[in-house]
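Put briefly, the fold is written as integer tokens. One such record reads:
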Amino acid sequence: MTTTLLDVNVLNNYINGEWIDVERTTPVINPATGEAVVNVPLSTKESVDDAVAAAKVAQKEWALVPAPQRAEVLYQVGIIMKERKEHLSKLLTMENGKVLEEARGEVQEGIDMAFYMAGEGRRLFGQTTPAELKDKFAMSVRAPIGVVGIITPWNFPIAIATWKSFPAIIAGNAVVWKPATETPIMAYELAKIYEEAGLPKGIINVVFGSGSTVGDAMVQHNDIRVISFTGSNETGSHIAGECGRQLKKVSLEMGGKNAVIVMDDADLNLAVEGILWSAFGTSGQRCTACSRVIVHENVKEELEKRLLEEMRNLSIGNGMDEAVKVGPIINEAGIEKIKKYIEIGKNEGAKLLAGGHELTDGTYANGNYFAPTLFTDATVDMRIAQEEIFGPVVSLIPVKSFEEAIEVNNSVTYGLSSSIFTKDVNQVFKAQRDLDTGIVYVNAGTTGAEIHLPFGGSKGTGNGHRDSGVQALDVFTEWKAIYVDYSGKLQRAQIDVD
């Protein structure tokens, strides 16, 4: 179990600026090859306790560091990430499977986020407002919360971590981070970068392990006052319940059942390009992946024809190969879930046009590969049109009108991302208004969010908070109202006095 890309065979926790051995480990498997690339710790609750204790002490000093000075660390993090972009991208592909082109894009998101959030070190704006009494000053400021816990998924192992940790740190908090056990290498590399950039000991702490042990210990810990989680709806709902019981702030970013709407006046070549990238990029393993295409019946057959033609040209394989466009599925459990939904779709009466099977022969023998899949003639009530599959499966749903397309888009329990392809400016503005998702694209697919805008959704996708953009600061700060009375006497607001 050695690789020239990685400088260790066993990862350690990073607590209070020290690399801590953990007795129990489990192998991390490259989903493209089936090979073990490193061992990751399976930590206990005691490791979480140690990390929180260190973070609690360190945060008190960090909060007193002027925010522009805190920003200098993030600027340095961004510089180091930029210098190591190619190395980080290859490591990401090795542990996650996504193709190098996408891995580079994800690392670039982290670089962009570092510089963007460092800029907030000279802003972190509050408000000043007129006071209602004479000789009185009123303002609001952001205050750090203390120790925050972040729990990140395997599908974007560095981008999402930067969306959460960078705003938490710039705001004056300390972080305890549980990465996914499937993709721990990015956490190891980012911890090293934080250390090299000069982040004080205890401000970032990485505890590897399972959600049932490490994640639950974080959620239950009294000294962690914020949990920021990205993952499944089932786990997110459990976390929300536990945090609610403790009156603990929680930010959830969960599933999606995202749709591309293709109207009868759309540029079909552009629509096909957008659908392919959104549906089969990252092998459909994105919360923003397109898994529904809501197509006007007048262009349905032509769109099907063009999609099938282009799907035949998709190269599938190890993401380290620059020519490959579709990589593997993260693990065997992911394969089994996709296979289950293929059978569900068939039994529901949807017509399978392409794919629908695991790839196991030849170069695919040792990895986890699934053929890009296209269903047509799906209806809005089918499970494949309602439930998140998290794989390279897309279903075409025909509609008769723009109004019906909007209704079908909004019929699911999720509300993350939506897209419409049309040349009608009136429909564009109506879609922006009426699509009930947190992200709306016009003449583009359902993926491609930019870090300076809020990322998140409505309904079953989340609980109203946002990753990315300045809105991310709301998760990791509390608003403090401050009144300064310089009248020299007691003045009572809202009390009439003669």
In short: The radius of gyration is 24 Å. The first strand starts at residue 13 and ends at 15.
